[in-house]
Amino acid sequence: MAEPGGGRPVTVSDVQQLVRRKDEIEAQIKACYELLEGQKGVGMHEPLVDAEGFPRADIDLYQVRTARHNIICLQNDHKALMKQVEEALHKLHAREKEKRAKDEAEALAEAMSQNQSLPQAFAKVNTVTPGSPASVSGLQVDDEIVEFGSVNVNNFQNLQNIATVVQHSEGRPLSVTVIRGGRRVHVGLTPKRWAGKGLLG
């Protein structure tokens, strides 16, 4: 969003500067109108000659002409400046929009790459009995299991694989990796006998 010729993007302070200049011009126009008002209320279009065609003696003609000329010039400047303010604001908004879209795209790309880097799950936790070894270790319902001791997606065939690992690891901590809410979570699980069925619950 570089400026033609200027070669740099519009900033908020550029817009503020334009608005300050606009306020100055408006103040100058107001001062010129007040000057005309002071000259017997002569506005922009009242005649400056009397009925006989002579210059009016009751007003300062030079001051009135100068004020009228200044008002016309200042109004033209004001119009051009308003156009500049509008263009600058458009550019500023367009840049904000562009930046927001870029940020959103980056966030999305990051989320996508995180998802791609997550390993594949081979089983999902359906139930966790309160007070069981699984519950004590912090396993939760809907956790997706990606590693259970030595079992992973590459060597998993059926749930019997997990049962075998559990039986061989009674009383010894197993490293379990799950995906929870799109993040990888490690859980230390020790299969052991408890009040309920099985070694996990």
Notes on the protein architecture:
- This protein has about 200 residues and is of the alpha+beta class.
- The chain has 2 domains: about 10-115; about 125-190, PDZ domain (Pdz3 Domain).
- It is about 50% helix and about 10% strand.
- It has 4 helices and 5 strands, in the order ααβαββαββ.
- It has helices at about 10-40, 60-115, 135, 160-170; strands at about 125, 145-150, 150, 175-180, 185-190.
- Helix 1 (about 10-40) packs antiparallel against helix 2.
- The longest helix has about 55 residues, at about 60-115.
- It is rod-shaped.
- It starts with 11 loop residues before the first helix and ends in a 12-residue tail after the last strand.
- Mean pLDDT is about 85; it is low at about 1-5.
Would you kindly provide a brief summary of this structure?
The protein has helices at 12-38, 61-117, 133-137, 159-168, and strands at residues 123-124, 144-148, 151-152, 174-180, 183-189. With 201 residues, it is of the alpha+beta class.
List the helices and strands and how they pair.
Elements: H1 12-38, H2 61-117, E1 123-124, H3 133-137, E2 144-148, E3 151-152, H4 159-168, E4 174-180, E5 183-189
Antiparallel strand pairs: 1-2, 2-3, 2-4, 4-5
Helix pairs in contact: 1-2
